Q: What sequence folds into this?
């Protein structure tokens, strides 16, 4: 056993026994398949997260432009009376 187990872990023992019951070549192929599937899932999740981050940045930037346009229009409609009257 590669790990030093201070406490007996029946669940891990059961999993190790499952892998040990298979022929070595089959266990290697199955473990490679399992790792490939898990890696594909991880890559897909990473891609989805990256896309969400990208779209969040786009939405915030669009909101910033909309806010700037709205503030500019409000300034045109309600000019500051103190700015045009020099004292």
A:
């Amino acid at each position: 056993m590669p790990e030093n187990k201070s406490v007996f872990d029946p669940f891990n023992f059961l999993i190790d026994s499952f892998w040990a019951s298979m022929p070595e070549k089959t266990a290697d192929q199955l473990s490679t398949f399992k790792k490939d599937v898990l890696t594909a899932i991880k890559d897909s999740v990473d891609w989805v997260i990256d896309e969400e981050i990208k779209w969040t940045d786009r939405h915030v930037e669009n909101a910033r432009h909309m806010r700037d346009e709205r503030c500019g229009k409000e300034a045109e409609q309600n000019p500051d009376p103190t700015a045009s009257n020099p004292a």
Remarks:
- Residues 36-75 form one domain.
